């Protein structure tokens, strides 16, 4: 049985709590946050505290707070030589105060409190500074996920950067698409099967091979027509930037295809 304490009460912390609460070989001994209002519905399930001096002993302490708060919180922990990990994709393990053993427990997924997550399918990127700590952290990860992976800090940073492109930037494109459809009274919901198929397609094809559309075909008439339709200059800039990027990526492929056709 692995005992843990969760520190923080944001989106990641709430999802971790639910996942660990259902895990057979994990006991959540305590849940800390400066303000415990959002945690009160769980008061009958776990010991809550807003006082760091009252933290109980556990095998692993999981810091699930904003990136900027990780170092300060780790410095305030009232103990030494215990395994403390954070859940950030971009913060170094060395940013955790060195009085404790340090590591990373990074769930590579997007989390919103209102959206349910199947944690068994969430990749967990793990890193520890001391070899002896890795197996314990791995066992913890395997208690809630089928996908645990040992990664170094450079790999994790690259994954986090890539995640911004595939999640945050993509979601912003969904928002732009929503504004475009709303402007003409069209239903955004009609695009949802396309969104799902776009994501499903890359399960079997590389993103390069999966690319379609007017930019890849260098369909100048359609591109010109689309730009004319866009009244919002910000949307127009995004369209131009994405079109240029796709055209640059597939320029050599298009040239090869034209030679074959000729």
Keywords:
262 residues, alpha/beta, 8-stranded mixed sheet, 9 helices, disordered C terminus
Strand content: 5-15%
- Strand numbers in spatial order across the main sheet: 3-2-1-4-5-6-7-8
How many whole angstroms does the radius of gyration measure?
A: 23 Å
Report the sheet with the most strands, covering strand number, pairing sense and barrel closure: 8 strands, mixed
Helix content: 40-55%
| pLDDT averaged over residues | 94
Q: How far apart are the termini?
A: 68 Å
Quickly count the helices. 9
What is the structural class? alpha/beta
SSE topology string:
EHEEEHEEEHEHHHHHH
Total beta strands? 8
Shape: elongated
Low-confidence stretches: 255-262
Could you characterize the architecture of this molecule?
- β4, α2 (70-76) and β5 (83-86) form a beta-alpha-beta unit.
- The model is unreliable at 255-262 (pLDDT under 50).
- It is built from nine helices and eight strands.
- It has 262 residues and is of the alpha/beta class.
- The chain has helices spanning 11-22, 70-76, 131-142, 153-183, 192-201, 207-210, 214-217, 220-229, 233-261; strands at residues 2-7, 26-32, 48-49, 60-63, 83-86, 101-107, 124-128, 148-150.
- An eight-stranded mixed beta sheet has the order 3-2-1-4-5-6-7-8, sandwiched between helices.
Note the topology.
Blueprint: E1 2-7, H1 11-22, E2 26-32, E3 48-49, E4 60-63, H2 70-76, E5 83-86, E6 101-107, E7 124-128, H3 131-142, E8 148-150, H4 153-183, H5 192-201, H6 207-210, H7 214-217, H8 220-229, H9 233-261
Parallel strand pairs: 1-2, 1-4, 2-3, 4-5, 5-6, 7-8
Antiparallel strand pairs: 6-7
